[in-house]
Amino acid sequence: MRSLPLPLALTARLTPVIVLACAGWALSSGPLEAEKDTAAKDTRLPRSESSAPSSTAVTKTYGAAPAPCASVAAKTVASLVPAAKTAGREIPSTDTSLRRTCSWNALKGYEYRWLDVSFELTESDESAATSYKERTTEKSGGGAVPGLGDEGYSVVNLTTEDKQQTREGTVIARVSNALVVVTYNGSDFESKKAPSTDEINKGAIRAAKEAVASLRAAALN
To answer: I need a surface site. Which of 25, 64, 153, 205 has the fewest CB within 10 A?
Structure first.
């Protein structure tokens, strides 16, 4: 905003003050003072602005999820899900670089089987380990699977609805920053009984081992 003109007498009295003030400003903002200011600013820079390389860089072993329908051998699918198309069906995902799932299911006679294999990628090994712990805690009652990824866990549960039993096994494996999740279940619609715990558990672990091997192989390509 433009100032109103000052009376001539007042202007004449203020002129020496303004001149001295300008001279003082010039001295205080000269090269020497500028160097002092620069040095002071340099000492106040936070460590994050330093040019030194960061030691907290995150390295991700797996940057993309492999094709899940190719992660389990055709003979394994034929054994676990009789009469199913071995090619499987990939489930739509909002981001296939982070999560991919393949599903196989079929009814042979009165025997029904369902198999899901999922790959889920996180930002770091730490975040994958956190997610692994949360999921295994949520699905309590199972146990560790030695030699399956960096960490492996398996649990089997039996449910009954309208007198029909279904037994489902879940295997969760962590491999660096990736999680491999396998779900395998079955029912007999004639006897109303479910497959044995041993059959479901071994089948889920078999598929999980192949999926983990497929994930590791993908990282080498």
So the answer is: 25
Q: Which amino acid is at 176?
A: S
Of 92, 85, 151, 146, residue with least CA distance to 115? 85
CA distance 48 to 68: 40
The CATH topology of domain 68-220 is Jelly Rolls (2.60.120)
Helix (H) or strand (E) holding 211: helix 197-220
**Nearest-CA neighbor of 65 among 154, 181, 194, 204?**
181
Query: Residue with structure tokens 């479910």?
Result: 194
pLDDT band at 208 (very low <50, low <70, confident <90, very high): very high
Query: According to the model, what pLDDT value does residue 59 have?
Result: 63
Q: Could you report the per-residue pLDDT of 127-136, keeping only the tens digit for each? A: 999 999 999 9
Contact, 155 vs 138, CB < 8 A? Answer: no
What are residue 15's phi and psi, to 5 degrees? Answer: -60, -50
CA angle, 63 then 64 then 67, to 5°: 155
